[in-house]
Write a structure and sequence with these properties.
Blueprint (H helix, E strand, L loop, with lengths): L2 H32 L7 H10 L1 H30 L4 H38 L1 H20 L3 H17 L8
Length: about 170
Amino acid sequence: MNKDLQRFGGVAALIAAASFVVGFVLFCAVLIPAGYDSGDDPARSTAFLADNRGIMHAWNLIIYVVFGIFLVVLALALHERLKVGAPAMAQTATAFGLIWAGLVIASGMVANIGLGTVVDLYGKDPDQAVSAWLTLRSVETGLGGGNEIAGGLWVLLASWAALRAGVLTRALN
């Protein structure tokens, strides 16, 4: 087993977890109270984006791109650990982990590029900016912000492979 990959995988797991914690705290403590993602008022959400482009860009970068990058390392490290005891399941789990990472990174890139488009439109035509935001938000959510099938399958299959291989504790699985 590659010790460096295992070490990097452990660090990647901690960074990925931290990105979620930071992202959720920022979302709950700052973004929601300030008016972001007002499902019943897309115009309010779009105005928020125009006024808070920097924080939104950073948030998208943290929760999507940083998480996705470190998820790649984590998935590969976990595969290395599981492949001896459950090779086929470990390989399938890794495929879903890498797919999930790609979807999450793509979601973050769509969110940040879309953010720029919405903010630029908002200064010229706020109604068109709302329409663009609703469309881009649907794409972002469809890729990885609201549909975690690939991630759920990765966790399920990796946990099942780890149980079969006996390389992690039951509690961790």
